[in-house]
Write a structure and sequence with these properties.
Largest sheet: 3 strands, antiparallel
Number of domains: 2
Helix content: 55-70%
Strand order of the largest sheet: 2-1-3
CATH topology of the largest domain: MetI-like fold
Number of strands: 3
CATH superfamily of the largest domain: MetI-like
Low-confidence stretches: none
Shape: extended
Length: 436
Amino acid sequence: MTDTTVTSPLSPKEAAIRVAATLKTRGRSESRFQGLGLAAISTAILFLILLFAGILSNGIPGMFQHYVILEVTLDQERMDPQGDMSVESLYAGDAGTLVNEALLNALGNPTGRKAKRAARSIMSSASDLRLTEFAVANPSLIGQTVSVKFALDDDIDSFMRGFISRETPEAERRINNQVIEFVDKLNDAGRISYELSDYLFFGSASRNAEIAGIKGALIGSIFTLAVCLVIAFPLGVATAVYLEEIAPKNRITEIIEININNLAAVPSVVFGIMGLAIFIVTFGMPRSIPLVGGIVLALMTLPTIIISSRAAIRAVPPSIRDAALGVGASKMQTIFHHVIPLALPGMLTGTIIGMAQALGETAPLLMIGMVAFIVDIPGGVAEPATALPVQIFMWADFAERMFIQKTSAAIIVLLAFLITMNAAAIVLRKKLERRW
């Protein structure tokens, strides 16, 4: 039986009350949603601030270290035993003895084997090499007494920073009372300074924290990224142009597109395993060289470049293509003279972002052996090298206190590199983009 009850219409006043209640409920829902969004953004910003605060609090001090200034007499016979002032002769000289004599002289020439051993522990183990390099750079000063700046041992540096307390019992300290007495004497004489570390920026890999640096790793990263760019950019752009402008839309191209999108989500360590299996095991290429690292990173970066380049090509208005074809341009002329120039800003932006991602990768480089301890600065893409993220990974595993700060300092350098690359992407996009 049909219900014939007729609902009476609401009066204007009742309708207004109901609408007002509905608006209040909707307003409260929107306010809650906005509050949740602001809370999420605030939490993310807070964690970001905490992250950067932790890095900067350790990293900025890691860019500095303590040095001691000594008056060293560059004795001609001991610095240049062969007497021909050649580099070989200077490196064969007895620089270590000259440094020890200068240090003992600054301390008032203490006697006894124990006191001399305590004095020698103040200096970095690479002090003789630093004096030799100074003599090689300034051969005209040999035979004179000059002021030379030497790095302090990492334990002494930690003591000067307050990480080692003199109030701690001597048996529980890494440095004894005699060493502290000598350090105080040098400090009171104004010989100890706290300066920007030249070892951090111009030194290479070392087990001694006070002389370890990022120069070799930074150059290795540059070589690796150069190989990655040379391979990934032209291949990525060519693939994007072919898939968007030339390839027929059929099942084969659909499968290719799906695989490209899937490759963008593959963990980076898988590319490292592939590089190890194909380039090193199968092709016999050397381990730990930027050439192999660049190829692996190029394969990892290709999906990102292809996807961003295809998006940039799609963003070009169809009217541009129609106009070019309408005035008699061929399809290839339309692509190379009109489509690619207009899509280039987006292509370059995607490429630089992909390169920045590659710069921070560690896992694929570990798989191909770029974790090796390389002291020499690489001179090319075929010479053994390490990369900055791998150097950071290795330093983080060392026990010395100074390596903690140097790790944070290296992270700051890496972040600065990444920020610079992303800023370059923004500048290039603004400079090259055209409006229509």
